[in-house]
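Contributing new records

If you add data, match the layout below exactly. Sequence lines come first and carry their own label; structure lines follow with theirs. Keep one chain per record. Anything else will be rejected by the validation script.
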Amino acid sequence: MEKSENCQKLTKCSEKHEDLIECEDVIECLLRRFEETSSEAWEEVFKEILKEKIRAKWGAELEHGAAAYVEAMDKSWQAKVAAAKAQYEFKEGMIKAIFYKE
């Protein structure tokens, strides 16, 4: 295993439950991890800024769209529940008619 592969493997210690002390070059491993987390942090900040801008520009329209979507989901769910109930009642009626003749 190459040194850089070893560092990549060992710097993910939180995921693989390995110890950084096992790394051949601890400083190199730590620097690589700082670089990775720095890039992730920059990406998160950029996403937060974009979210703020999007909400400021289109927030009201997005809220209306989300409300309409949730309302449609609710109606769809209610229709599925009603269909399942009707199917259950039909099956129960058929069982009673076939097996429990009076």
